[in-house]
Known about the structure:
By secondary structure, the protein is an alpha/beta fold. It has one domain: NAD(P)-binding Rossmann-like Domain (Rossmann fold). The protein has helices at about 10-20, 35-50, 65-75, 90-95, 100-125, 150-175, 205-215, 225-235, 240-245, and strands spanning about 1-5, 25-30, 50-55, 80-85, 135-140, 180-185, 220-225. A seven-stranded parallel beta sheet has the order 3-2-1-4-5-6-7, with helices on both faces. It starts with a strand and ends in a 5-residue tail after the last helix. NADP nicotinamide-adenine-dinucleotide phosphate binds next to helix 1 and strand 5. NADP nicotinamide-adenine-dinucleotide phosphate (NAP) binds near residues 60, 87 and 108.
Amino acid sequence: MPVLILGATSRIAQAIAAEYAAAGETLYLAARDADEAERIAADLRVRHSATATAAAFDARDFDSHPALIAAAAEAMGGIDIAIVAFGETGEQKESESDFRKALSVIEVNYTGAVSVCEALAAHMAAHATENRSGVIAGISTVAGDRGRPSNYFYGSAKGGFSLYLQGLRGRMRRHGVHVMTAKLGFVDTPMTYGLKTRIPIASPEAAARAITRGIRRRKDTLYYPRFWRFVMFAIKAIPERLFKRLSV
Length: 248
Ligand SMILES: NC(=O)c1ccc[n+]([C@@H]2O[C@H](COP(=O)([O-])OP(=O)(O)OC[C@H]3O[C@@H](n4cnc5c(N)ncnc54)[C@H](OP(=O)(O)O)[C@@H]3O)[C@@H](O)[C@H]2O)c1
């Protein structure tokens, strides 16, 4: 099965790539740092005898996205699974004082993710008869379920992406293409480096296993770790007049 990973240098994406390589799938690893993506691809070729190609990809270079999807499809003979894994949390305080920083967070997590998903949707819809089992999986976050003062640029961009994926899921259904939203809690990656919390932090490998299992089972929305579904249910139930007073 040809698998395209966008944001392939992410720790979670690397663990997903290793899962698919071990299963004998063909990989196309697209990342902003093409040299690092090539290093990861070379490692998968040696470790798993995988067919893995690396390419440059910038989420904010919107115009380049359709050509990248076409190149990935040509290299692999189609795209069965596409995983949108990139993201940028940014620094909330810096984004509050410099809108260019906020814009970068919005463009990476929302506009860039939507842009590449639209290119994927167009490609998968056009190849619907040969590609009835296609999947687009977008990695979002539980932080997108409710706006909080501590991370609302990142949270709102990811929350918007989750809503976008929900709409895309309905649109692509008639083409036989499944769209999965993975809403992750804390995972031990550079994104959470130095985070002090009493809430359990998952390993990237465990998150990758949950995501690939979710794709196999055609889940609509996956919360991982699973307890976050109940945590967010409770958090969303707090009345706004109380919630706005909490320092969260
Ligand atoms: N870790 C968590 O606790 C957590 C929780 C919820 C959701 N998530 C989501 O999980 C996904 C994977 O993140 P991670 O935890 O594995 O963190 P990570 O290792 O820091 O990965 C983030 C990735 O995003 C890429 N990226 C940033 N801006 C980009 C751009 N303009 N174009 C292309 N790629 C870009 C980075 O590329 P460079 O290597 O070039 O910087 C990096 O590969 C993200 O969508 C993140 O929002 C993570």
